[in-house]
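REQUEST ID: PR-0412
SUBMITTED BY: lab tech R.K.
PRIORITY: routine
TASK: structure prediction, single protein chain
INPUT:
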Amino acid sequence: MLTEIQQNKWRPIYAPRPTLVSGGFKRVSKKRPCRICGKPTYCGFSTDEGTSICMRISAGARGPSRNGGNIHVHTEIPIFTFPPTITIPDRESIPLAPLEIRDAVFQELIRISSASNYREELVTGPGGLLSRGLLEEQATRYGALPPTKRDRSTLAGILSSYVGNHFPNYAKLYSGAGVVGVPGFWQDPHAVVHIWKPRNYLMPILVIPYKDARGRIQACQIRLHARDISLGGKKYLWLASPLERRGTSSGTPIHFTFTPEELPAGETVVITEGALKADTLVSFRPKARVIATTGVSCSHDQIIEAARPYNVLIAFDADHRTNPAVCRQLARLIVQRDKDSKEHRSSTATKIIVWNGPKGIDDAVRANIGLSALTVSEWYANLENEALEEVKKFWREMNFKP
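STATUS: complete
OUTPUT:
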């Protein structure tokens, strides 16, 4: 590592066991919890350790952040026990490939490396697609990444050749490396293309497409197998490569299970978390029209715009009634939609779906559990304790009345 740092002229702030960052803000984790509330989820912090964005505690904050959190500025930076960081220079800026290229690459990836190629690991086994209630033939809608970096590099090479054959002008931009600019792909110093991380896994990785309003795949998430998730690690991640050489970010797009052009204004759409959850919901409720975001705090502006013509049923996970941080994000989405509706003189309704038992709405419909749609006022009236106080305080700050 020291040799690599010297060769690239990276200037270490601390020497032992560095963790690379590229500036800006990072999410908290079990190794580096929030300095304000001490929790390892939802919150964030600046990479210079000067600012915390706490999603739970507002006391002492300088004000609200754009994502509904609370901005806490630290005047003193303490010594931490979590792994230190080093600063690296900006890498070559690789623009996101055109949507036409991304869609074609991801479609081809799913075609030649389908989840059904790993039937026992990703389809029929514990936690596989069938266990969610999907049908076996639906497995071909999802892709898979091989567990070894060598096999993933081979897959990347095949897809790079595919772009060279079908989009030669784009491939020429990167000397024939056609997958450069597609999230999740990158190129090493020896001109070899790769997909995902330069490491081996125990099991294949599920690839979940995120489709735009016209059904084109704009980006993908991946789901790690249970055997490859470290303690405190995440199961779902974006298939992205912003920190790799000639890699790029995926952004945080939303996923559509329907074509808005074919759905008249005034109809009803469901908002939920995760494309796989949205697809599962539609498999049990074929008439449902679902828009999925990656999390309760993500892509609110995109959701507001996409759902503007429609009545909305918000179906976040069941902790939107008890978890203060989640309740705050739901409250923020409600305020944003209300403001947008007034600006566009829309009379569409917003309701919240609730149920008893399972965490996700996909699990609820699979278990045939009854769903109820509450008005915003009814949802608010059912909040208690910290969740109620958090929403009440946030809405008071926003001058919003349900």
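NOTES: DSSP finds eleven helices and 19 strands in the chain.
REVIEWED BY: pending
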